[in-house]
Design a protein that fits this description.
Layout (H helix, E strand, L loop, with lengths): L2 H7 L7 H15 L3 H28 L1 H8 L9 H18 L2 H28 L6 H4 L6 H16 L7 H32 L13 H18 L5 H38 L11 H21 L5 H43 L1
Helix pairs in contact: 2-3, 2-5, 2-12, 2-13, 3-4, 3-5, 5-6, 5-8, 6-8, 8-9, 8-10, 9-10, 10-11, 10-12, 11-12, 12-13
Length: 354
């Protein structure tokens, strides 16, 4: 098997987190007053999204058994939700940066269809499969990607609802349902994750980058609530619910904020105390995304609450997210360069040996 075919065969389902991270960091850069960075990341994101879908479709055609095996795997299966979240985040990015309502709406429909297919196929497969891992070996922060997928749809629907006057109420109702449903989904999953963290032994490998989704899922829930609250004037029902939406959004933001010091402590334990080396892993995009999302959700929360004292925090995390994106992107480029050089070297090596 050639190196390219092998890379496609082993393509991680969660690689769409690259698009999630790039999209939200682009939005954070725009809100922080960095339009050149924001626009540059938009073009990178469009290309990355197209490439990842091409690779995924090729994988489906060439290696359907491997893709299906990932779909029902407790570790990798939840990674498929990144394609839903990536589609929703890209739709929001295009709407906010280019005001392209039609393209954003198409991406919203695609994200909704993908979510409907995946949420019942993945979790139904986990339920009926005979050989299952125990809680300590089957559960990780990536399980919260289902929450992120739902909330990405809630955010996009909240933005688009008032722009389609003939169906504003159904779209905003959809946003409200996904927002509340995603919040309840978080309660279910985080309870199990917290139980797993505190009552089972942990190794450095157990704290892989997706554990940052513990925070990211609450950050995007905050953004969805803040965006929904900002659109309240478009529908009387949201005016009625607005105080509740604001209170819940503050609660989600407080939970996301609580997670940050804990995640930093766990990261220090993993890499400094246990001396686990840093090396590029596609799952690190799942750590960049929450940093950008925390910045954006803090910007939006500050706006709906008229709490300007939160602005410095939002700006700080925007710069942190941009720096993290650059580091992980450089890691990706180095990985691709090494793979290219290896592919060029091996043929000549074989011919020399012959």
């Amino acid at each position: 098997m050639t190196s390219i075919r092998l890379a496609i065969a082993d393509l991680h389902p969660a690689y769409f987190a690259l698009v999630m991270a790039t999209g939200i960091v682009s939005i954070a850069a725009k809100l922080a007053g960095l339009p050149l960075i924001s626009d540059g990341l938009l073009w990178i994101n469009v290309v990355a999204y197209a490439v990842l879908w091409c690779l995924t479709l090729v994988r489906l055609a060439w290696f359907p058994h491997r893709l299906f095996a990932d779909l029902i795997d407790h570790h990798r299966g939840v990674g498929f939700f990144t394609c839903v979240a990536a589609t929703g985040v890209l739709g929001t990015q295009i709407y906010l940066l280019r005001d392209n309502i039609l393209f954003a709406a198409v991406l919203g429909i695609v994200a909704g269809v993908l979510w409907l297919i995946l949420v019942y196929s993945v979790f139904a497969a986990f339920t009926v499969k005979e050989n299952k891992p125990d809680l300590a070996h089957g559960l990780h922060g990536g399980w919260l990607l289902g929450v992120v997928a739902m909330q990405s749809l809630a955010v996009l629907c909240s933005w688009l609802g008032p722009r389609f006057e003939s169906c504003t109420q159904p779209i905003l109702f959809t946003a409200l349902v996904f927002w509340l449903g995603g919040g309840m989904h978080y309660v279910w999953i985080i309870s199990l994750i917290f139980y797993r963290y505190t009552f089972f032994p942990m190794s450095p490998s157990d704290l892989s980058p997706p554990y940052w989704i513990n925070m990211g899922a609450m950050a995007i829930s905050t953004l969805a609530g803040a965006t929904l609250s900002a659109q309240a004037d478009a529908w009387q029902l949201l005016v009625t619910f607005q105080p509740v939406i604001k209170v819940l959004s503050i609660g989600f933001w407080a939970t996301a904020t609580w997670w940050i010091p804990m995640l930093l402590i766990l990261g220090a334990w993993r890499h400094l105390y246990k001396r686990l080396r840093f090396r590029y892993d596609p799952l690190y995009w799942g750590a960049v995304f929450p940093l950008g999302m925390y910045s954006v959700c803090t910007f939006r929360l500050a706006a709906i609450l008229d709490a300007n004292f939160l602005q410095p925090l939002a700006f700080s995390f925007a710069y942190i997210a941009i720096a993290a994106w650059i580091v992980v992107f450089l890691g990706l480029m180095v990985r691709l360069l090494k793979a290219t050089l290896a592919g060029l070297w091996h043929p000549s090596e074989r011919s020399t040996c012959a």
